[in-house]
Write a structure and sequence with these properties.
This protein is of the alpha+beta class. The protein is built from five helices and 16 strands. The protein starts with a helix and ends in a 7-residue tail after the last strand.
Length: about 300
């Protein structure tokens, strides 16, 4: 660790120590700002929320208090600290409503399932602070990546859904997606709401990928029509600074039925733009964003929501 990083880490440790001193003895007293801190159960199968009261009034000081709590064993013996021994908070920064937290190299050694729970607990706990809406995690300053090597990017609390054997909060929690499918003529879009169960319908992946997979799956009724070739595979999807970057395989180039190119593109762009962290979309096919899509769109273009096609 270079001197600059060591100094920042030392300062953060001092702040966390001070936060412990101020909050440790009275953390169960009902005064201050109430926040829900997410902990992992001993079996590492789910998150459990516990209410804590923050002494600080300044947002940055609240962040230090929350990070301290995540590093501390909870009173409930059925739970464990979210950030266990060896996983240190190196630095943190607040920029607008985004918190960036750099964790030590030991974080890379966490098993995959546990890592997703840990990531969710950090994001949900920090975004419980008023004025914080999203979180970026890095490991020693390098962007956090998923098991496929894709950059995870900025995360919000609603991005985390559960999979078989991994329950995150209430078992009956639902998520409602607003998806855009084609009309009968294939030249317009119809918006539909699709409700999915966290514990049955979707796996523990980003909400952007869930949206894309549901669009590829197609509509659930005869009132709307698919916009994407069902053979299409999502190679990767990431979000950075509000831009969702999608990499499809070559099957995406094949048109389906009589659906126009505009309808295909904007069914995706409009559906993704319904998410709070996405306002623009850029496409690539097999990693290439330089080609033209169906001789109409240059994929170097960044697309924005277009509701003119919606009925």
């Amino acid at each position: 660790m270079n001197k600059k990083v060591w100094v920042r880490a030392a300062v953060l440790c001092i702040l966390i120590f001070l936060a412990v001193c101020f909050t440790g003895c009275g953390k169960n007293k009902e005064h201050g700002t109430a926040v829900d801190i997410s902990y992992i159960n001993k079996n590492e199968t789910k998150l459990v929320k516990e209410k804590h009261y923050l002494e600080s009034t300044d947002t940055k000081e609240k962040i230090v208090e929350v990070l301290t709590l995540l590093c501390t064993m909870p009173d409930n013996k059925e739970l464990r600290a979210t950030l266990t021994t060896g996983i240190n908070v190196v630095t943190y920064a607040l920029d607008g409503d985004q918190v960036t937290v750099s964790l030590s190299e030991k974080y890379r050694d966490i098993p995959r399932t546990t890592e997703v729970l840990t990531r969710a607990a950090i994001v949900r706990s920090l975004t419980a602070i008023e004025g914080v809406s999203c979180v970026m995690l890095t490991v020693n300053g390098e962007p956090l990546t998923d098991s496929s090597g894709n950059v995870v990017g900025v995360m919000t609390a609603d991005m985390f859904v559960d999979n078989a054997g991994t329950k995150i909060e209430e078992e009956d929690t639902k998520v409602t997606l607003r998806l855009y499918f084609a009309n009968e003529e294939g030249d317009g879009l119809i918006a539909v709401n699709r409700e999915l169960s966290h514990n049955a319908d979707i796996s523990n992946v980003s909400m952007e990928k869930v949206v894309l997979e549901q669009l590829i799956k197609g509509p659930a009724s005869d009132e709307t029509y698919p916009t994407i070739n069902p053979a299409t595979k999502v190679i990767s999807v990431t979000v950075q600074d509000g831009v969702c970057y999608i990499n499809f395989d070559s099957a995406f180039e094949t048109a389906i039925n009589n659906v126009t190119t505009d309808v295909t593109i904007y069914s995706i762009v409009n559906s993704l733009s319904e998410l709070s962290n996405v306002n623009k979309v850029q496409f690539s096919i097999d990693g290439d964003s330089d080609n033209r899509f169906r001789d109409k769109y240059d994929f170097s273009t960044v697309f924005e929501r277009n509701l003119s096609l919606a009925d």
